Amino acid sequence: MEIFIQQIINGLTTGSVYALVALGYTMVYGVIQLINFAHGEVVMIGAMVAFSVITALAGTAAPLPPAAILLAGVAAAIPACMAIGYLLERIAYRPLRHAPRLAPLITAIGMSIILQHLALLVWSRNPMAFPQIVDNPVFTIGGAAITGVQIAIILLSVVLMAALTWFVYRTRFGIAIRATAENVHVASLMGVDANRVIAATFVIAAALAAVAGVMVGTYYGITHYTMGFMLGLKAFSAAVLGGIGNLAGAMLGGILLGLVEALGAGYIGDLTDICKWPLMKEAVAERCAADGHLILMGSNYQDVFAFLVLIAVLVFRPSGLLGERVSERA
Amino acid sequence: MSASAPILEVRDLHVSYGSIAAVKGISFEVATGETVCLIGANGAGKTTTLKALARLLPAHGTLHFDGHSLLHRPAHELIGAGMTLVPEGRGIFARLTVAENLDMGAYCRSDRAGIDADRDRVFGLLPRLKERARQVAGTLSGGEQQMLAIGRALMSRPRLLLLDEPSMGLAPMMVQKVFEVIRSVAAQGVTILLVEQNARLALSVASRGYVMESGGITLSDSAPALLANPGVREAYLGE
Q1: Domain interval for residue A74
Q2: Which ipTM value was assigned to this complex?
Q3: Are A10 and A262 in contact (CB under 8 A)?
Q4: Is the CB of A175 less than 8 angstroms away from the CB of B100?
């Protein structure tokens, strides 16, 4: 039971981060039907910028309070990522707006590679320790541990998702974003400047990515120029799981994917312990005698689950959990 | 012809899809306050003409709205200038609520009080929309969607309303209702350019009409004269 609760806590934490990143994929897709494969790299840049700012501020002779330093890291990462999101759209995607869909997709992969290598040049090819400057108290719930950082990540994600939902459903510009996502031509007839809406979508997505980047850095305590790649793919899987283009879907998909991954990682060792399989007991008795375990797949198979989920969704419900059936637009 | 100056003046308008010329140098005008229709068969270039006016298609020629050239202005600036298109197929935002659709019509305006007044005016004209204000627009019937599209356009307080095939895909009774609405909008003083395949209906609300045929205007006259014209009667009124 402790393992179960522990993995739920861990899953909610990573799931919150996936949800924030998945929102970026799904918003951009919703408006221009592009999978922005460079989005994971925006998360990485966010973590890197925060890393630099926090390291610099914490290293001064009379450092600021830790919370202020962390905030400064976030405050620097957000505009940096917003600028990158804006430039991506402006330089890489806008010229291809009316090109065949494969062209912007390949460009997105290209931008992902470029951003990774820019980060390699600016920062380092080696993993860097993300400064752990804030106190990280551990609380106990039902025998499982939850850290202050985990609580902060979950709460902040909820606040950001609520704010985004409010913005998209309750403000004039948010309604314009949804209208543009539905029909860009008619939206322009209503006076909506599609370029502005599309740019804004990239910028908002990037701001969420920046926060997610700082969360990842703080949670895992490490940053690396390739960290955005796997995270991006997983968040993309989460967006597909929820139904790409659907905001609530991205949030749900992110949380679910985090839970599936955490529970999978928590139990796969037990499930693949041959010593516990009745039929196999005899055959491996000798090897089980040593320490009672013969585990085929350990928690290092964690990454597999996201992609198993992605494959299952694509096979059984391509429109995702909350997605509508995709229909051709006239 | 009306004495007031034309609010819309089109001279030698050419529109092509790639190498195929769809509109071949047409000229027409609409005076402030009048209702003018463009009638013609499927493929005559009527919708293409309206799309060119709304800047959804590149075009050549002279396009003057209210004395200013439209040719190089982006589509999203026209509604603010006072010209609003109700597109063919209605083009409502199916996933937005009825109220949100109407708000989109007023996207370019910031006069809160005026917007509220116009919303009440639209609800007065189209009471069904008021009942369904909180409903997602995709759940409306075809006729209600057409009403919503017109109501949404009215929210921009247009000086020229372009209507593209408002009868398309509607049951005959609904078509009558939509045209009643168009009549009352015209009676409120909105200038209307109506594109319609249903020539009899179009000529019943318009004061003047132009007949389009394979990308050109072949005839232009007052509505009663067109209704009486033997060629029009044979080709477009099914007699």
Answers
A1: 2-316
A2: 0.91
A3: yes
A4: yes
